Amino acid sequence: MLLLLVLVLCSSLFLIYQILNRQKHLDQNSTANIPPGSRGLPLIGETIQFIRAVNSNKGFYDFVRNRHIRYGNCFKTRIFGETHVFLSSTESAKAILNNESGKFTKKYIKSIGELVGDRSLLCASPHHHKLIRGRLANLFSTSSVSGFIRQFDESIIKTLGEWENEGTVIVLDQALEITFRAMCKMLMSLESEDEVVEMLKEDVASICKAMLAFPIKLPWTRFYKGLKARRRIINTLGKIMSERRCSQTEREDFLQYLLTEDDKACSDGNPSLMTDAEIQDNILTMIIAGQDTTASAITWMVKYLGENQKVLSLLRDEQLQIAEKNLNKSFLSLGDLNEMPYASKVVKESLRMASIVPWLPRSVLQDSEIEGFKIKTGWNIDIDARSIHLDPMIYKDPNKFNPSRFDDEAKPYSFLAFGVGPRTCLGINMARAMMLVFLHRLVTTFKWEVMDSDSSVEKWALFARLKSGCPVYVRRIDG
């Protein structure tokens, strides 16, 4: 009897050994040629480490930077229950962002997708994205940008006129206010005095704070508060749209254009060009993109210029020439902006160094091979724009603020501030115009001194915001 038990036990142990050995070989085969990296803890992966970086003064990109140093140009991790592969070479950027093979589609992490909406350009499927993009393209035409420039310039002149008596100004706060007002006016003809503008501003701020939060829908969490803010914004947009449809007065703004085109389609017996939900999600997306990214970029630009007086001197010489030529003109035009070659390089260099959008996310639709590694269907693949922007093999002295580096054409896929390919930022010309107009009015009106050189970034911010807000002491040039 004892002998029988020993034989059974030995057989069982041998069977277990075979199973474990087979599993070991399966694991080895399944992980062959996949990118290096850590899976982290079961289920949650490295989400805790990611959230820790989000909540630090270095910002969430520090999570990526540390792994880039450890593993190289290609590594994998697991956050929010999904596998992410980060790539930081121009060759990878070309293969993925051009997407000629149709193997990739844009996809943000769960928290961002739920907050901006699945009908947003940021999250739409390839086919849906193409349709929506086509319907929104006219909103960013040359004539639209030209009209917006005058409108934005008027707002900047008014705001800077109030700086003279301020002494010290927090640039980020001012830039957020300016860009938010500009987006509300352009999109929906909402003026600063409208009560709804202040409500929208607070709710948009709540959404931005929630974008990198852990997606738990509990009342005290940032994510839950962000979702509530989104619902309030969608309700507000719905009311504005209903009022427009009942009103006999037509406005000259983005929303009116979308509603008018939709009415024309319906009267011709065609289906709606865009549903109300699509309009609402994309209005919200444009507000966030137009305000948050542009305001952050303006803030970094002011900091870089304040700390690089030689660059500022060259820029001011260019802008004073334009100001002298326009003595009899009240506002800037698109033609004026096209005569700002050095300012355009300042904008480009600021965006390169700050990398406001640090990586460009995609989802893998088909098994692929990138840089010799197997990339599986369903994984997320992220182009690490910041690593490319700061690569010394691409940019000499990458941490030096040097707009003249763009005297020569940049290497293809080495400048990714607005993306590349079919998903290039639709508002690229609008954002560029806002930054150039602000630059012109600032450098021809004020001298300034940066009061805090700290480059720490704000916690929880999806787009790289200066924690200090960039306080500057300003005084008029003629003062």
TrEMBL record:
The keyword Nuclease does not apply. It is found in: Membrane. It comes from the Eukaryota. Residues 1-18 form the signal peptide. GO terms for molecular function: heme binding; iron ion binding; monooxygenase activity; oxidoreductase activity, acting on paired donors, with incorporation or reduction of molecular oxygen. Pfam families: p450 (PF00067). InterPro entries: Cyt_P450, Cyt_P450_CS, Cyt_P450_E_grp-I, Cyt_P450_sf. Its cofactor is heme. Belongs to the cytochrome P450 family. This is Cytochrome P450 family 722 subfamily A.
